[in-house]
Amino acid sequence: MNQKAYQEMTKMLNGFPQQATADLRGLLLTYEEDLVGVSEQAICEAAVRFRRGLVDGQSRTFAPSIAEFCIEARKIADILPFRDRPSIPPPRKDAFRHDDRKTRIRMGFKMTLLSTAIGLRKVDEVDKANKRGLDDLIALAQQWGVPVPDELWQNSGVA
Length: 159
Prior knowledge:
By secondary structure, the protein is an all-alpha fold. The chain has 2 domains: 3-83, no CATH class; 101-153, no CATH class. It is built from 8 helices and no strands. It has helices spanning 3-14, 24-34, 40-51, 66-83, 101-120, 123-132, 134-144, 150-153. It is rod-shaped and about 90 Å long.
């Protein structure tokens, strides 16, 4: 264990009443032996959590047993890799180009057509028409009585 881990554990132990004959050095050596393989960061965080009364079910009067402390430190060690990994950066402003008017109109049309298809239980037909292109989507919309925005007529070959 590093110096910081020893310091945090000593602060934790000093925060609880101890017997006058308590051998702090021997106790810390026992903690160290039983915490082999647990990161110093997890040990420090477990000590701080016990000292501040943040561990569920802990005694507010007495220091944790070695077993209680080891359980908490291992729990924290399991969580640390997830907590400390870098977060996903926010998307770049230019990453999404679907905010132009033309795209919104086309997507709104597709959603309206898809809603109608759900009611008719013909979603597969919309999927097939979408794969063939805008002209087929417009033809399907006309067949089902779905209004086609004027802006889409300009981009289609349907008369």
